[in-house]
Amino acid sequence: MLDGAKMSRLPPRPDLDWTDDGTPEDRRAGDIYFSRQSGLEETRLVFLKGCGLPERWAGKARFTIGELGFGTGLNFLAAWELWRANRPGPEAWLHFVSFEGFPLDREDAARALSAWPELGDLPGKLLDRWPERALGVQRQVWPEEGVTLTLHTGDIMETLPSSRFLADAWFLDGFSPAKNPEMWDKSLWPMVHQRCMDGVSIGTFTVAGFVRRGLSEAGFNVAKVEGFGRKRERLEVRLEDPPAPEADPYGLRSPARAPDKVRIVGAGIAGACLARTFLERGLEVEVLEAGDGPAREASGNPLGLVMPRLDAGDTAQARLLIGAYLRARQFYSGRPGVHETDVLQRPKVDREAERIAKVLADPPLGLENLEAAASGQLHKRALIVEPAVLVESLLDGAVLRTGRLFTLEDLDPDVPTILAAGQGADALLPWLGLAGRLGQVELAEVGVEAPASAIASGHYALALGKKRLWGATFEAWDGRVPEPSDAAREQNMAALETLDPYWRQSVKAAPLTSRAGVRATTADRLPLIGAVPDEVRAREVFDGVRHGKTVEADAPLIDGLYLAGGYGSRGFTWAPWAGEILAGQLLGEPAPASGPELEAVSPMRLILRALKRGG
Ligand code: SAM
């Protein structure tokens, strides 16, 4: 367990010290992260050579490395450097999954990595995307190099069991086993075993007896080989029998064969983020749109806001919302039509003021991201997007077709189809229970240019250049083509008056336009991301759940059908995260979220939950 009497929602910093020659050391463990003289050479021998790299990834379309102990990221960069020099093909991907309990601040990582000028531009690339200080899973992607980093932050006893991936190689790199026994505890090895691909290779610097015994007991073959420098020996670990797959009740498993083409239904922000993600992975992408062009329906507002939702409690759902937000920010940053902004969040009711106070007292995100403001909290580095510009750029390279998926009989068994059609999914899969909610916003063009800025309090108001946009209403939808209404406009005007009377004044003379759209919402307000089950068969297979039984079975799925929707009013936040999740699942990559998070957004959850309630 991580020590510290009071656990805060931010992961603890390491107790860092620097030796005279600039070597980073952890006082808590009384050990160094690496030797400044020979750290890189040692990494290359113990982990890269120890795992048979680069030979082991030759000819592979994807290769996954797991690591216990991310530290400064040196091992990751050394693997990346080797990948650059020996990438098996222009479309091959290296996925690096690492675990860290005491994340370094970016400045400390920069200081540590400055010891390795021979790594060229790689430390800079990592430092530009240095993970935020937050518990949970963060994914960084470097599409131009075919590299992803998935960092699980938190105590290893919590993060390792909740991770979902299969590794081709593992680097075991805790501090010395005598000083950091939690990272070498024998309870970890069955979990590592469960996360091994056929033919896995594992490297580590230690030959400690209890580590060797633990690994052997978990089924690994352990061999001592010649070590590095003062360490005479190190271990190379292999596995004869890959683990048997576990039951998959939520339909999270990857298909046996990774596709080279996907079809996406819907060209709004959900479809566009999926398209970009799959295009970057090198797949052919076809996008089917029923309307008269991209970003016309719910994603068609002239401006959109991407801001975090921070809950007062540290639940799986709270982490998932943070993970999705951080992914969205990373994904959109630097793209056309994307502008950084602060968002002043004002509490609308007392309950919200209490929540904000709790969040500020024990924030789940580092203080570069939020601070207390006189009348609420200030979210820093949030985004205002211009959906039309953004969506068009994301779809660049996809084949756009006009059309509609009328029935599930139209599915092509060879081309996975992802339904990203918002409320449109309701007609094909009524059991999802998607509820349409009408949302209206008001737009004004004023004479004064303003930098990006935003105020939120249930409703929100955005300024960008001469555009001012505010809303949105959240009303029941009767199924008809959405039309703006005077009643909704009145509601929005009243909301603007409360948000900021000055703004209300400044748009008084400007001509207004209104826009209404339908947003698809789910009963639990979480999105639907994942494989689509065959509802009738799933109810049969899992019938025992109604009687309180645990059913160890795979979810029966509709072959080749996936869903990305039910985003409610958070479409721009969920969409990039959903892209990574579905790319991960379809292509057999590591999941960019924890198992409980994937379950919480899986379509299958709806059926299991209904059965548990006896329905
Ligand atoms: N691979 C790293 C690199 O390239 O810089 C060096 C890793 S360092 C030897 C060991 C790492 O394990 C430290 O970053 C430490 O914070 C982490 N660690 C130690 N105990 C942990 C625990 N209980 N849970 C998660 N991480 C832990």
Description:
- The chain is of the alpha/beta class and 615 residues long.
- 28% of the residues lie in helices and 28% in strands.
- It has 18 helices and 25 strands.
- The strands form 4 sheets. An 8-stranded mixed beta sheet has the order 6-7-5-4-8-9-11-10, with helices on both faces.
- The protein binds S-adenosylmethionine (SAM).
- S-adenosylmethionine binds at residues 2, 14, 33-34, 69-75, 99-102, 155-156, 173-175, 180, 182-183.
DSSP helical segment count: 18
* Assembly form of the protein: single chain
Radius of gyration (CA) equals 25 Å
Distance between the termini: 40 Å
Hetero ligands: S-adenosylmethionine
Instruction: Give a short account of the largest sheet.
Output: 8 strands, mixed
The 3D shape can be described as globular
> Helicity level, as a percent range?
25-40%
| Global mean pLDDT | 94
Which regions contain 5 or more consecutive residues with pLDDT less than 50?
1-5
Strand order of the largest sheet: 6-7-5-4-8-9-11-10
Please count the beta strands (DSSP E, at least 2 residues each).
25
Task: Tell me the β content.
Answer: 25-35%
